[in-house]
Amino acid sequence: MNDERLQTLEQVKDFIEGNQKVEFRELNAREKYNWIEEVLKRFRYLKLQKEGKGLIKSYLLKVTGYSRAQLTRLIGIYQRSGKIQPAKYRRHRFPQKYNAEDVALLAKTDELHGWLSGPATKKILERENEVYGHYEYAIIAAISVAQIYNLRHSQRYGAKRYTHTKPVVSKIGERIKPESHGLPGQVRIDTVHQGGSGWA
Q1: Rounded distance, CA 62 to CA 8, Å?
Q2: Residue 30 belongs to what H/E stretch?
Q3: Fewest C-beta atoms under 10 Å: which of 37, 55, 104, 116?
């Protein structure tokens, strides 16, 4: 935007009232910031009286299309630092309330008690802290049921699980020769019917 012909507050006032021509071109956010900064410096905004500051603000509002609150924030940045820079994007990250030790206690409790429901697990955690005086459970005991399920599905929780499923050997249906020790009247009883004919 070419507004270099505007050098006095009177010219700015004429422009605001629609009597002054200024050449416009489309500006992106960074260019707008640079232009606002240049205008504030050119008119020595920080040294202006209240009326002068009001004129400059009205001028900037008309040209940029920003809201009054937005422009006030940008001028505040300029007053503090002497520059107007676009804010760098920072991805919002929620702070982790439960540290590695807390997650390890939850995983340990789950393994010892066989992964009970969320409400039952919460009760156990509370009892560990309040009844048995295991104060390392103080933080994790205040966990919500929903958060228990969230932690169980997290990578941090998965890394704390140590036990693995052990195969169980079953002897059902095993065929062995009866031991009668030479005594008459011994009857063999199969615990599992092995099939075949002759049973009625």
Answers
A1: 17
A2: helix 29-42
A3: 116
The answer to whether residues 79 and 46 touch, using CB atoms and an 8 Å cutoff, is yes
Question: Would you state the pLDDT for residue 43?
Answer: 82
Domain boundaries of the chain, sorted by first residue:
9-81, 100-158
Output the six-digit token pair for 84: 């107007």
Cβ atoms of residues 160 and 115 within 8 Å: no
Q: Which of 12-16, 74-78, 185-189 has the lowest mean pLDDT?
A: 185-189
Tokens of 27: 């500006």
* Tokens 């409790």 belong to residue: 109
Q: How far apart are CA 152 and CA 121, in angstroms?
A: 12
Mean pLDDT of 15-43: 73
Which two three-digit tokens encode residue 194? 């092995």
Which segments of 43-178 does DSSP mark as H helices, in order?
50-64, 68-81, 100-113, 118-130, 145-152, 155-158
The structure's pTM equals 0.41
Percentage of residues in the chain having pLDDT higher than 90: 12
Name the β-bridge partners of 19. Answer: none
Beta bridge partners of 2: 23
Q: Which residues of 144-172 are buried (b: 16+ CB within 10 A; e: fewer)?
A: eeebbeebbeeebbeebeeeeeeeeeeee
- As a whole number, mean pLDDT of residues 118-143 equals 90
**How many angstroms from the chain centroid is the CA of residue 184?**
78
